[in-house]
Write a structure and sequence with these properties.
6 strands, Transposase-like_Mu_C, Transposase-like Mu C-terminal domain-containing protein
Length: 183
């Protein structure tokens, strides 16, 4: 939790009816209904790889918060949201209307096929980065998992068969084994 980024201030003001505002979007949890929290500043964090959720530090615990447009922002990365915001801001400016982009406008734009086309390349890049972090943290890459699944070797040793054929079977198995690390 401590490695997730925070806002510029690091805190957000609690509004018991709307939640807390993190990077221009409201996030909500039932824990924010506490009347003692109303109007106070609490530490907040967000997941740059899932803008549908945020986190607030309430009563010595990190509480998960849900975005007001969770269905749209879930699994959207921070970079995707920034690209969509910039594109929407550019379009609004060209039309000569207001210059601010609201969360509702951004959510509506992200639902459109135009945004889908715009964000496909960024999603591919973000997926690769996320997979790299997973491997760094000790997990296996998708390629390693696929290789392991593909290499299934069957062996059947019979007491009645000769030793040479059993040795050949064992050598065949050993040739397919992969050494990952030494102890």
């Amino acid at each position: 939790m401590m490695t997730l980024p925070s806002t510029k201030k690091g805190t957000a003001r609690v509004d018991s009816t709307r939640g807390v505002k993190i990077n221009g979007r409201y996030y909500w949890s039932e824990s924010l209904r506490n009347p003692f929290l109303e109007g106070t500043q609490i530490p907040v964090r967000y997941d740059p790889y899932n803008m549908g959720v945020g986190y607030a530090y309430i009563k010595n615990n990190w509480v998960e918060l849900i975005s007001e447009y969770f269905s749209v922002f879930v699994n959207c990365t921070e970079r995707e949201v920034k690209i969509a915001s910039d594109e929407l801001r550019r379009r609004i400016k060209l039309s000569g209307k207001q210059s601010d982009v609201t969360s509702s406008q951004l959510a509506q734009f992200l639902r459109s096929t135009e945004a889908e086309e715009l964000l496909l390349l960024q999603r591919l890049r973000d997926g690769e980065v996320k997979q790299a972090f997973h491997v760094i943290e000790g997990g296996m890459s998708e390629n390693t998992i696929k290789k392991k699944k593909d290499k299934i070797v069957e062996i059947s040793l019979n007491k009645d068969s000769n030793k040479d054929s059993n040795k050949d079977s064992i050598k065949n198995i050993l040739s397919h084994l992969e050494l990952y690390e030494e102890f």
